[in-house]
């Protein structure tokens, strides 16, 4: 089972919908949570394209905010509570024990953050409950989770850590990168931050010991989609790419790297960087496969009796 969370920055353009369809095709999430949907129009039609059955919405205030939650008939989900910054649910899958899943869109304004984290704390009664929190926290928690812009303010993260400590929550690492948000500027004006995260209780981690969080490429938004895979990475996604230093000395290496690293979309720095890495990896994989094929042919020819 997989769960997707994405601050989509509006669902009103075709590029965003296309990006969402690509992610859904790749990971086939049973649950999709979108924040900053802005306009509610068309959301049900988009949900149907994702082949999901049920929905719950928190309307935007004017044209700002808005939350959408979609899920499959394979998931038993009950909406417990909701507000402009969260949707709290109880879920179970395939007859497993119930557990709590809270989707968040943290307020961007400093004067609202304390109230937000306190309101999340009021949702649960004790630390022994199976609880997972996923979404855009709008919170930088450590200096190394921020690159560029104003200096890290430790006092702003105090309410976050108080919330974590109160329920003995852990932050699940996200594979695939350090930052989840970019201001989409280049050079000296670039700002990168980790704002999107997955928090889990000890009880929850015991029930899902193989669970992992991963990042996908940031397309059509300044946020990266994050995915929670409850049973870990399936064989479909286990084809790890391993770079070998000796390639640098081989013919064809430089040409393939240069070809893969061609300019993609410099206006979206975070997405562009991820896309370049992906293209370069694909080029090198194809190059090595062709080179390996030629090597095998040479070996067979040499082994033939003269």
TrEMBL record:
SUPFAM superfamilies with a match to the protein in the record: DNase I-like (SSF56219)
InterPro entries cross-referenced by the UniProt entry: Endo/exonu/phosph_ase_sf (IPR036691), Endo/exonuclease/phosphatase (IPR005135)
Highest taxon in the source lineage: Eukaryota
One Pfam family hit: Exo_endo_phos
Residues covered by the Endonuclease/exonuclease/phosphatase domain: 4-223
Protein name: Endonuclease/exonuclease/phosphatase domain-containing protein
Species for this entry: Hibiscus sabdariffa (roselle)
Phylogenetic placement of the source organism: Eukaryota, Viridiplantae, Streptophyta, Embryophyta, Tracheophyta
